[in-house]
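Hi R.,

Here's the chain you asked about this morning:
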Amino acid sequence: MSGPHPPDQPGPDSLRLVPDPSLRVLDGGRALLGGSPLRVLRLGAAGAALVARWLDGDPVTPRAAERALADRIVHSGLAHPRYPASRWGPADVAVVIPVRDDTAGAARVADAVAGVADVLVVDDGSAAPVPGAAVRHRRPRGPAAARNAGWHRTTAPLVAFLDADTAPPPGWLDPLLAQFADPAVAAVAPRVRSLPGPGALARYERARSSLDLGAEPGPVRPGGRIGHVPSAALVVRAEALAEVGGFDESLRFGEDVDLVWRLVAAGYQVRYEPAAEVGHAPRASWAGWVRQRFAYGTSAAPLARRHGSAVAPVRLSVWSAAAWAALLLGRRGTGAALVATSAALLVRKLGRVGVPGQEAVRLAALGHLGAVRLLADALARPWAPLAWPLLRTRSGRIAAGLIAARHLVAWWRERPELDPVRWTAARLADDLAYGAGVCWGALRERSAGALLPHLTDLPGRSSVPVRGA
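And the predicted structure, written out as tokens:
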């Protein structure tokens, strides 16, 4: 990886660390546990003292050793960086707006980003040419080709991609540009929230948009809590785009996921920063929304061919898989023995790096319980079309009832502006449409990779990496 440095190095009071909600400080500060995927960072006495001060609010100084430790903590997802100001500004950013048959939307976005280095509207084969477009494709070539055509025409060091149906508010760039103080960061995405609107679909999208990744920041990586970010709103270093070859134009959907994963594979960092928020127009009809969810699902199989198990619908420990399989087969003793053995092995492993036995047992229990949720998610979404015949059986009807109950629990917790009946129906339709797309894509690609689970704790794999510092 080769990443450019920002115009100026951050000053001594620039970087502060904000702990991730998952962070647990153990063994007198010498062990940091957390992140996603879960990991343990082992510290020496000096490092533990430094981290304690940083978590109390002290800034990270520009000393190379301190910055290296802070970078390791940030890149592991144990804490998140905060800078009071950015050395980058809108004048360093070119905005690329791909558009097809939405001249008004492209004009609104272009007006909203005044002050940037350049605004490049790319007309991807609209029926009527978009006035003022920097590039026009005579035939639609897809969003990947449109975005590539735009960033290739600019010399700005940073490129912001904004879809024509987004609504960037004033100041949306500031929190994103601050993250580029880390020269390892290649791309930063804001939170994309569905705009309020009339009707049940708009209310559902406001609470459950597929583009909305939530209110917690973090690193973006395959298998992590934030596995991808959408290119509906995304800022990327132009040099990093050139290094990985930009968007893959052979992908009609999932091209943003593919770009992010290739950046990560190249050694770059990609971050999600919800302190910046961009609006997004919801679909106008339920039929259009179902088609969109289906289309998103079809991207899983092509992505699996390129990225293997990163697309796995469920990632769980082989111990959890075996334990729950035993319980489902009625072998309760075997299941209990597997749970106890996995807990004992984790206590032994983590005890070597200062994690108390009680904490290790808690992690083991949470892992086994979390496996149920992950399997339920897979059964409700990518595996749903395959599991449909099971509804004729008593076990299948019980599973469907539990899935519907899970959606009702989510309604109770989130309290969306939608009644529980329509909320549950929309969640079920959402899952089924996406799952049908996954299965159709797998048939089209003649590959089951997007449907296969990924098991950890196999030889050569570790569910809880341990690193020293």
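Residues 420-445 form the longest helix (26 residues).

Let me know if you need anything else.
M.
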